[in-house]
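FAQ: What does a ligand-bound record look like?

Like this one, built around benzoic acid:
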Amino acid sequence: MEENQIIPIPRIGEKAPVFKAVTTQGEINFPNDYEGKWVILFSHPADFTPVCTSEFMTFATLEDKFSKANCKLVGLSVDGLYSHIAWLRTIKDKIEYNGMKDVEVKFPLIEDITMDVAKKYGMIQPGESSTKAVRAVFFIDPKGIIRAIIYYPLSLGRNFDELYRALIAMQTADAFEIATPADWRPGDPVIIPTAGSCGVAKDRMENKKDLKCYDWFFCTKELSEKTVFDKLIKER
Ligand code: BEZ
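The answer part, i.e. the structure of the complex:
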């Protein structure tokens, strides 16, 4: 990749940029190796730093929960492979934090010293740092399409409950053809598609049946937590 080449940042709805990379779990071909699965591709600024350490311990502890929701985790920083290995060994052997200890990071951590991958994904944001990736999170669906992107600055550790909530909300939207309102959690009412004709709008307002309509364009229906998780989660 040429120096100073301007690379567009990938956007929601686009194919995830393709790359091959060396990781702590061997080489990966992205996103092809993950076809049929959701992936959270996330970057962190640097190995052996405190916020990143707290994040990796948290994400590694939750890996199984994401896996049951058909979602694999892939990390990246612009450090080299041996730094990654040394850092992950330190985390496992020495760090006890927030009730977590002996934490093994089993998901792949990409080495990206050349910054090729980080640049492709817009993870280098020079206003924040030109030598470190910001904390980017890309949600990529089973067809390799980017479905959500969240960026955080270097100083802000991510909220992993929110990442899980966002994943389940997108999967629920796909599976049940609904949308999810503000602060939605599984078990809360979901939003049905807005009426697309005057007839449907009238019907919605007059024959509400199992719907709750705040107005013709804003109707919700119940969707139990059990229905959501029975459909989405393997081995509950
Ligand atoms: C951290 O993970 O603690 C960190 C990394 C880079 C800059 C600032 C904080």
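Follow-up question: can I read anything off the structure? Yes, for example: Helices lie at 50-68, 81-94, 116-120, 160-176, 198-206, 225-232.
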